[in-house]
Amino acid sequence: MTEYEKMVSGHLYHASKDDSLEPLRVKAREIIYDFNMTRPSDVEKRKTYLKQLLGKTGNNFTIEPPFHCDYGQLIEIGESFYANFNLTILDCAPVKIGHNVMCAPNVSILTATHPIDPEIRSSELEYALPITIGNSVWLGAGCIILPGVAIGDNCVIGAGSVVTKSIPANCVAVGNPCRVIRQISDKDKQDAEKRLSLY
To answer: Total structural domains in the chain?
Structure first.
């Protein structure tokens, strides 16, 4: 099994002791550099760079520079994805993001992690666990999504939350560690409709 195969399947692997991983990271960083240096009016150029970088995209998506990731090819984003400034995705394992997802500034989605045992950790072994984010999710400013987490459809994750465990669908969840504080209800829809009536 190659180091890449170990990495994407959740096994311990050496990120720096396999000649096949470094070129993938360098390729991603070259594209990211070009993307992050685009002018604000270069909307189509940005999309072209992101389609070269990411494993799968919808037709309608926006990521505001600066953006950072490890490989890019392990990231899938759905239709109508929007990410504000400073999105970071460490995609050492697959990251799957659904449709109509919004990321506020400074969101971090982190699949990479290290062994707790100091002896094993000092050997430079690491591992990664996949992250899945459902449809119509809103990640508030400064959210940190940790390895192995799944966030269900329609969730709102409050600003500054550290999501250490999976969150079920249709929830508002906040905090460090992030926890569910309530279900999304008909009242939320009524409140939104009331605001729309003033629009």
So the answer is: 1
**What is the chain's pLDDT, residue by residue, as a tens digit (199 residues)?**
899 999 999 999 999 877 889 999 999 999 999 999 999 999 999 999 999 999 999 999 999 999 999 999 999 999 999 999 999 999 999 999 999 999 999 999 999 999 999 999 999 899 999 999 999 999 999 999 999 999 999 999 999 999 999 999 999 999 999 999 999 987 887 777 777 777 6
Residues 145, 133 contacting (CB under 8 angstroms):
yes
Q: Which residues contact 191 (CB under 8 A, 6 or more apart)?
A: none
**Which residue numbers are catalytic?**
114
Spatial separation of the C-alpha atoms in residues 37 and 76, rounded to whole Å: 23
Host domain of residue 159:
3-197
